Recover the amino acids of this structure.
């Protein structure tokens, strides 16, 4: 199982200037629960957006830069290389950003998508469109906005048909 995990607005917005457009603590908690003790596959900009490597995960960082090195990262140069390294993990996670989601979509079996109920016109990074002919929604859990969450959102689990 290869899972893409993301939070995206109503128009598939992911972020702007290498940062998220919202702060959803419960979504961060869910992300941590799902991805801990797994390989997480990401692009260089996503990795560099973290203050430090995330605990209890192996960070596979895809970059075109042949000389890139960072503590806490296994640096690789293709999605194929990432999936080969993670092949013994029963569920590696693709965690972004936009370009990595695009190249990983054909390899994914599952999408854990937090659909943020809002539109964000200044976004510069987007989750790829995927066809409901190829994917089936198997779970939907709504979360209302509250004092800790400026936006309501829905956890959606999609599996490839």
């Amino acid at each position: 199982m290869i899972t893409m995990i993301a939070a995206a607005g109503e128009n598939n917005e992911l972020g702007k200037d290498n940062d998220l457009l919202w702060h959803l603590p419960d979504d961060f908690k869910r992300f941590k629960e799902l991805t801990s003790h797994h390989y997480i596959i990401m692009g260089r900009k996503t990795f560099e957006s973290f203050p430090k490597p995330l605990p209890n995960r192996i960070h596979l960082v895809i970059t075109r830069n042949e000389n890139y090195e960072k503590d806490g990262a296994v640096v690789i140069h293709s999605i194929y290389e990432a999936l080969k390294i993670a092949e013994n993990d029963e569920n590696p996670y693709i965690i972004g950003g936009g370009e990595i989601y695009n190249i990983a979509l054909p390899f994914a079996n599952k999408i854990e998508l937090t659909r943020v109920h809002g539109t964000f016109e200044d976004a510069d990074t987007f989750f790829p469109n995927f066809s409901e002919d190829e994917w089936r929604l198997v779970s939907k859990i709504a979360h209302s906005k509250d004092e800790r969450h400026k936006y309501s959102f829905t956890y959606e689990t999609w599996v490839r048909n």
Remarks:
- The mean pLDDT is 96.
- The chain has one domain: 3-160.
- Helices lie at 25-35, 44-48, 79-85, 98-104.
- DSSP finds four helices and eleven strands in the chain.
